Each structure stands twice: as structure tokens, then as C-alpha cells.
């Protein structure tokens, strides 16, 4: 057999192949119910009061009192001040706090999740808490919480929304565990 000509080989490579037949079947999404922000906050507060008073329903059930990141006002204020070059490093810190940091206060422990992938996680029970100090920021809209542990470690939680409620909850849970040092 004679070898194929180069023109025939090139035309077979360049010739487009037809696209595969694809079909699209839309799947309806299940309906969800939304509750108002006030109802959600009221239910979280009721759970917190029940847990603080020692009425833990379900025995081993862990209830979440607060789960969230840094206050949005901290990010907004730092972005405005970031227009000056002098404040730019603090703005970058606020942006990283807003997108990377998460706090969770449950009926059993405090969890701090950080890192780009959320791999840096710190958990400690209320039985290891010896003191809780709050520092208000921006006219008391948000604040920092400094928790001192039994081994002397200080955990600094920055820009926590509802910081007074969260600190009071942490104090009451630590007092219920018997580890809080009263000063």
C-alpha cells in the first residue's frame, strides 16, 4: 500500500468531530422554610439560658450558643481606614479575620477555627477556663475576649459580635464546671 498523502492526513486531523449529545434534565430543589432573624436569635438565647441554668436537655446533647466569625463592623471600619496607607496592615489583618476566623461556643467547649482551609482548630473545655476578660471596641459594638486557661495559655478572640453575652455565657459555663477563679 502506498503511504497516505500529507494533505489527506492533515485534513483528517483538522476536520472537527461532532460534539457529543448532551441532555439536561432540571431537578427541582426542595422547598426550605426561613425563619426571621429575630426568631433565630430568640431561640439561641433561650438555648443559652437553659444551658447556663444547668437544664441540659438530652443529657449528652451539645447545644451551640454562638457560631460565627468576626464582626462585620470591624471589617467595614478597617476598610474605610485602609484608604490611608498608614492603616493598610491593620486592614489586611481585619480582612483575614473576616474570611478565615470562626468562633463556636457550645455547651461543652469553645472552638476556634482558623487557617485558609480551616485546618487550624483549637478546642478547650470550660473546665480549663480560669478567667474571662472582655475589651470593648468601637463604642461597644464588638469586642475582644481574652480567655485564660488553667495552664496559663491566653486565648485572644478578636472582634467577637455580642461579646458581652458570649463572655457571660463562657463565665457561667466555667463556673458551672467549677474552674472559674473569682477575683
The CATH architecture category equals Roll
Q: What's the helical proportion of residues?
A: 25-40%
> Would you count the extended β strands for me?
7
> In CATH terms, what is the fold-level topology?
PH-domain like
> What Rg, in angstroms, do the CA atoms define?
27 Å
Net shape: globular
Overall structural domain count: 1
What string gives the helices and strands in order?
Answer: HHEHHEEEEEEH
Question: Which structural class should the secondary elements be placed in?
Answer: alpha+beta
Assembly type of the chains comes to single chain
Biggest sheet descriptor: 4 strands, antiparallel
Mean pLDDT: 78
Pfam families: bPH_2
Organism: Zea mays
InterPro entries: YdbS-like_PH (IPR005182)
Keywords: Membrane, Transmembrane, Transmembrane helix
Description:
The protein has about 180 residues and is α+β, with helices and mostly antiparallel strands. The protein has one domain: PH-domain like. It is about 35% helix and about 25% strand. It contains five helices and seven strands. The strands form two sheets. The chain has a four-stranded antiparallel β-sheet. It has a three-stranded antiparallel β-sheet with strand order 5-6-7. Strand 2 and strand 3 form a beta hairpin. Helix 2 (about 35-50) runs parallel beside helix 5 and helix 3 runs antiparallel to helix 4. The radius of gyration is 27 Å and the shape is globular. The termini are far apart. The model is unreliable at about 30-50 (pLDDT under 50). This is YdbS-like PH domain-containing protein. Keywords: Membrane, Transmembrane, Transmembrane helix. Pfam families: bPH_2.
Amino acid at each position: 500500500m502506498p503511504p497516505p498523502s500529507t494533505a489527506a492526513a492533515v485534513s483528517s486531523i483538522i476536520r472537527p468531530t461532532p460534539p457529543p449529545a448532551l441532555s439536561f434534565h432540571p431537578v427541582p430543589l426542595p422547598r426550605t422554610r426561613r425563619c426571621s432573624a429575630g426568631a433565630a436569635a430568640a431561640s439561641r438565647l433561650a438555648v443559652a439560658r437553659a444551658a447556663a441554668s444547668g437544664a441540659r436537655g438530652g443529657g449528652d446533647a451539645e447545644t451551640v450558643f454562638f457560631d460565627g466569625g468576626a464582626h462585620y463592623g470591624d471589617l467595614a471600619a478597617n476598610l474605610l481606614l485602609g484608604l490611608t496607607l498608614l492603616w493598610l496592615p491593620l486592614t489586611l489583618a481585619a480582612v483575614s479575620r473576616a474570611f478565615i476566623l470562626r468562633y463556636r461556643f457550645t455547651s461543652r467547649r469553645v472552638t476556634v477555627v482558623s487557617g485558609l482551609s480551616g485546618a487550624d482548630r483549637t478546642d478547650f473545655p470550660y473546665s480549663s477556663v480560669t478567667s474571662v476578660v472582655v475589651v470593648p471596641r468601637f463604642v461597644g459594638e464588638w469586642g475582644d475576649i481574652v480567655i485564660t486557661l488553667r495552664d496559663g495559655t491566653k486565648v485572644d478572640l478578636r472582634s467577637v459580635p455580642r461579646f458581652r453575652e458570649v463572655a457571660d455565657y463562657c463565665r457561667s459555663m466555667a463556673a458551672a464546671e467549677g474552674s472559674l477563679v473569682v477575683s
